[in-house]
Design goal:
389 residues, alpha+beta, 4-stranded mixed sheet
């Protein structure tokens, strides 16, 4: 009898278990991916829901606080939601696309227009600064130490205010100033009275002056002397005049002879003969000659030479001294000038020739007021002044 052969597997349960393990191994990766995706979707849903929760935002506009409740996520969206417009020059404390968190604070400063004048040019600029100094710094305007700012740097900024920067510059220039010399008279006892001689020629001095000039926006507004230096000293002109007297008898004789000669030569058209009597100012006196059509002028000594001596050696005296032509009136003689009184011929002058007489005054203002007077009558008296009887 033959052997029976069994074709069934020896362990059918073991085969089913292997198939299950094989399926699980092949699909585990898919299951893992599905799980991750599910978790991600869940997280996104949670985050989106959280982001759309209501937030509180503190909005400060030019320092004034506004509390806003919103579900918007960015600052731009919040501003659009509440119709808050921003100017081109306004300043915001954070970027417009910043994601907002609950309780966040946002500051907005509105820019103000101002008129700024610098270097002669005026422009309209915008600033969010509070003070003039900060605004100029923001405009990149350099203010030098000497410059002036109007209004003051500490002034608060206001809308449409005018700000002006005045540029101050200074320089120093050197000027050459000529100083005129003076003429000084010196008495010389060895020279005859009435003669003069230049002892020393005058020379003008030179002074260098340093002048500080101040400019505002390029225009000169002030000049000040800051230093001076003598480059060349002034040399005064010295003129010596004679004081040596000749015998009075000779002088009077010569003068009297001159008068007599002129009277005899036919000059009676302008003068009368001597030894006539006349009464003036209550005084009776005799005169040697009457001069008509005499021209009167006035003079004074150079300032600083008070009490200067005359050509006859006397000191100039207002109300007494006159300068004459010695060929017409001898030095030392008295005259009576119609309308002016008694005067003594004590001085001479380069321009005093013929019937011209120069009356001495103490001040140049009196000389200017006196001027020049023509057609005067003068009585030539002699060396003794008439006195009241």
């Amino acid at each position: 009898m033959g052997n029976l052969v069994n074709n069934e597997p020896h362990d059918p349960r073991s085969s089913s278990k292997s198939l299950a393990l094989k399926w699980k191994h092949e699909n585990m990766r898919v299951v893992s991916v599905i799980a991750v995706v599910a978790i991600a979707i869940t997280l996104v849903s949670v985050l989106v829901g959280f982001s759309y929760q209501k937030k509180t935002v503190s909005l400060f506009i030019d320092g004034q606080e506004n509390t806003i409740e919103t579900r918007k996520s960015t600052l731009r969206d919040v501003l659009d939601e509440h119709a808050i417009a921003l100017g081109a020059h306004d300043k915001v404390s954070m970027m417009l696309d910043t994601e907002l968190e609950d309780g966040v604070s946002v500051s907005i400063k509105r820019a103000k227009p101002v008129q700024v004048t610098v270097d002669g040019k005026t422009n309209t600029l915008y600033t969010t600064e509070d003070r003039v100094s900060n605004a100029l710094e923001g405009f990149n305007v350099t203010v030098n130490p000497l410059d002036k700012v109007f209004p003051d740097n500490s002034t608060a900024i206001s809308k449409d205010m005018e700000i002006k920067v005045v540029r101050i510059t200074k320089d120093v220039e050197t000027r050459e100033v000529k100083v005129p010399f003076k003429t000084v008279k010196q008495a010389n006892a060895d020279m005859k009275k009435g003669t003069t001689k230049t002892v020393q020629q005058g020379q003008q001095g030179v002074v260098l002056q340093n002048i500080e000039n101040t400019y505002q926006d390029g225009k000169l507004v002030h000049s000040e002397l800051v230093e001076k230096k003598v480059q060349a000293k002034t040399v005064n002109k010295i003129v010596a005049y004679g004081t040596k007297k000749e015998p009075e008898v000779q002088v009077l004789s010569a003068s009297t002879n001159n008068l007599a000669t002129r009277n005899a030569s036919g000059s009676s058209g302008s003068s009368s003969k001597s030894s006539s009597n006349v009464s003036k100012d209550g005084i009776n006196f005799k005169y040697k000659q009457k001069l008509t059509n005499v021209q009167l002028t006035a003079y004074t000594e150079q300032p600083g030479s008070a009490g200067a001596k005359t050509a006859s050696g006397t000191k100039v005296t207002e109300g007494r001294t006159i300068a004459v032509d010695p060929d017409v009136v001898p030095l030392g003689w008295w005259v009576y000038i119609e309308g002016y009184g008694f005067y003594r011929a004590e001085d001479t002058g380069g321009a005093v020739k013929g019937k011209i007489m120069d009356i001495y005054f103490d001040s140049s203002s009196q000389v200017k007021r006196f001027g020049r007077k023509k057609g005067n009558t003068v009585y030539v008296i002699g060396p003794v002044k008439p006195e009241a009887n």
